[in-house]
Automatic annotation (TrEMBL):
Keywords: Methyltransferase, Transferase. The keyword Transferase applies. This is Class I SAM-dependent methyltransferase. It comes from the Bacteria. GO terms for biological process: methylation. PANTHER family: TRANS-ACONITATE 2-METHYLTRANSFERASE, TRANS-ACONITATE 2-METHYLTRANSFERASE-RELATED.
Amino acid sequence: MIDDPYGDEQLVELYDLDNPSGEDHDYYRALAAGTAKVLDFGCGTGLLTRSLVAPGRVVIGVDPSPTMLGYARRQPGAEAVTWIDGDHRVVPPTGDVDLAVSSGNTMMHVAEHAAAVGALAAALRSGGVLAFESRNPAARAWEQWTSEATYGERDTKAGRLKEWLELIEIANGRVTFDAHNVFEDGRDAVYRNVLYFRSADEITADLLAAGFSDVVIDGGWHGEPLDAASRLLVVRATK
Ligand SMILES: C[S@@+](CC[C@H](N)C(=O)[O-])C[C@H]1O[C@@H](n2cnc3c(N)ncnc32)[C@H](O)[C@@H]1O
């Protein structure tokens, strides 16, 4: 069992192929228009982070996984980004960031949600915006995460890969599962994941307590109204 669910070099090499830039990245890039300083929290491989680079704009990527950030630092264009190893405790409280984003459901990995949004508030200037997405607990995505439903086999540059999820525990909005990855040589890399499914009300309460206002939670990337069937909570708040 490996603690860092993003700690396997071979799987990190596959991450961007499995998680390409899509309408989520378009959404965050549109928010960045006209900004001078942007911070990407839980930036992972930095695919979005590097695409936020623009003339005259400072771009910072923060992530606690040395494997993810090591990959990010090796990519073309990485030198235009300031990469910081760590979680919310290392976010510089400069009070001058125009936009903080957190893509790929990163906030669901964060146990200390209130402290993390507090740290992002301290990084932002007054009027700065925090934007992130989180899976909607009302849609109960974990019910689809059975070993049978998630089992797959595919050819990758690391060879033939068999993969599936194994649900371990569901308790108080906290879903624990193991991601199994069996390589050709029989190695099963098992990653323990813990995801916090927070409701719109819980997220809003933490944002307001951290000093944010104008909290807007949409049900999709194009301003869709939020309802019980919405897969995602797309969250935006102003400091
Ligand atoms: C699903 S990946 C998303 C990466 C990237 N933002 C993207 O959109 O592809 C989740 C990321 O969250 C990071 N992460 C895990 N726990 C974290 C924490 N407490 N604070 C910040 N980032 C965290 C992981 O290292 C990983 O890179």
